[in-house]
Amino acid sequence: MNHILKTRVVIVFVALFSLLTASSFAQTVQDSLKRVLQQPGLTPEEQVMTRIRMGRALVDGSRKDAIASTRTALEMSRSLKDKKYEALAHSALVSLEYTAEDTAVASHHLDTAFRLARESGDQLTLSSIWYRKGWLESRTGKPHEAVKSFQESLKLGKSFPGNVYETNVYYNLAAIYADWNDTETQYRYAKACLASAMSRSDPDDICNGYQAMATSFEYQFNGDTAKRELLDSALYYNRKAIGVYEANAQRISFRSMIALLALNTANLYDQFFPRTYRDTAQHYLDIALKIGKETDQQEVVASCYGMMSTFAMNDGNYNQASDLLLAGLIALKTYPVPDNRLMARLMEALSDVAERKGDLPKALEYAREYSHYYAKAFDADRMAIAKKLEAQYQARQREQELVTLQEKAAFNRKLNIVYIGLIVACLVALLYLFRSYHFRLKTTIQQQQLLEKEKQDGVLQIRLKEEEAMRLQLEKQEAELQARLQTEEAARLQAEQELIQTQKEQLQKDLLAGTLQVEQKNELLETLQEKLRDKAVQPDLVKQISRMIETHKRMDKNFETTRTEFENIHPEFFRKLQEKAGNNLTKLDLKHCSYISIGLSTKEIASHLGVAPKSILMSRYRIKQKLGLAKEEGLDAWLMAWRENNPLSEDAAG
């Protein structure tokens, strides 16, 4: 009886390890997948992936149906252009064929999945195949190779957020390091498993993460049972996983794992807690037994009945213990293929109970049944070992063939390199011969071209000499023409200067005449004034005054003409004066300025203008104000300087 309890914990962990990828889906998941397949307009790719998931959902109910569904997906995937779907179908068949104890076929599917995944070029698919390879290696006694495969899967899938295989990879790595008693690394991977599960928010993955953490703390507690906090942590994470299941019962696919968690929790309470915690242990046993029956887990059902019978025996109730073991035996016989090893253990426990009750004939009968089932289990184990050894032999043979093929490929590569070297050498030799011939031909052509070029250069030199002589003749003629033009230009400039000088002299004469006319006007005005002083005005006085006024107008007109000539000599003089004075100078002011600029005194200007010298002084004062001159500045000196600073323009000079 006790050996059932001693080995049950190991069975729990091994079963948890294997059921992670077997994916025992609930009936609701199967129904959901069936409804998906019945939807119209489902693409071939979606049909393939749905049938693959259906195969994993059927694995606990009917492995035959699960394989059939996955094979249908495989056949459909072969018509698809993208080879990743065919690779995923082969990968799914790896776990199904292995659980069907056909390791050779599982290995064949794995090799094919690898080839197709590489052809597809999809990194996530290749990551899943590496995960499947590690999964198979861990179950065929190759944990070190499995770790390498899992690490490769993580490396390929790290660039894909929400990688569905990441949680499973961390879970399997934690299980391998648990077998190696490396609790530190086991805890690290269990923690990574939980973190990955939390990032995806999938209840199945979260249960797996909690279970991995619970197992890690339990292994640490087994190494140091004095640290009760490790046991409390293990129970805490087990309860968390069961709580996630109870809150998400309809969404949980790995219900079989929850049964194992509940069974393990009950065992921890029974093994490390006082008898007062019997009800707590029984609570978790009830959960495990219920889910174990629903998910057809023979190990869980047998272990539950075995533990409950142990409780009864510890209480001295042998009849109840016997009834519980018989109930477990009946439950196992309801399975299509009962587990002979479990049947043998139950028979052994029944024999032990009967012996304690003193019913020796019954104990002997159960002992014989135990021997019978044990022999069948032993034969099955030998057959499994033989198949496993055969699979390992075939794997080694394939590895050897692979090594041979690799060596042959390496030899062929070297041979190809030699062939390529010979071909390259021949090509180099041909290239050398061709280049030599081409060089000689090119040299001959260049010599011919050189001779032709020298001939052409000779002709060109003669032509250049002739053109040079013509150029020199043209330059000489051009120099003579330039000299003639310079002589003519000098003569023209001299004539223009003489003409300007003549114009200046004529203008001086005109100005002198204008001065005389102004004097005559002044005399007329004086005569007019004398006649006006005479009180006896003669009748014809009016006519005389009119004639004098007309004469005055003609004189003013002549002065305007003189002014125009003055502007021709100084085209900018009056304009710049107006700009300086802000266009405030009157015609009389301009006359006054012109007289000053030619050097007339105040008295002479008063005489020319026919006004008193005092009026000239007042006019000077107003002009200085309009020009903005200071009091100490002399108007005569300023106008002289202004005239010198504003010389004749070239146009006026012309």
UniProtKB/TrEMBL annotation:
Signal peptide residue numbers: 1-26
Entry's Gene Ontology BP terms: regulation of DNA-templated transcription
Keywords: Coiled coil, Membrane, Signal, Transmembrane, Transmembrane helix
Coiled coil residues, start to end: 462-538
Xref: Pfam families: GerE, TPR_8
GO molecular function terms listed in the Swiss-Prot or TrEMBL record: DNA binding
The keyword Coiled coil belongs to this UniProt entry's keyword annotation: yes
InterPro entries listed in its UniProt record: Sig_transdc_resp-reg_C-effctor (IPR016032), TPR-like_helical_dom_sf (IPR011990), TPR_rpt (IPR019734), Tscrpt_reg_LuxR_C (IPR000792), WH-like_DNA-bd_sf (IPR036388)
TM regions (residue ranges): 417-434
Name of this protein: Tetratricopeptide repeat-containing protein
Organism: Chitinophaga eiseniae
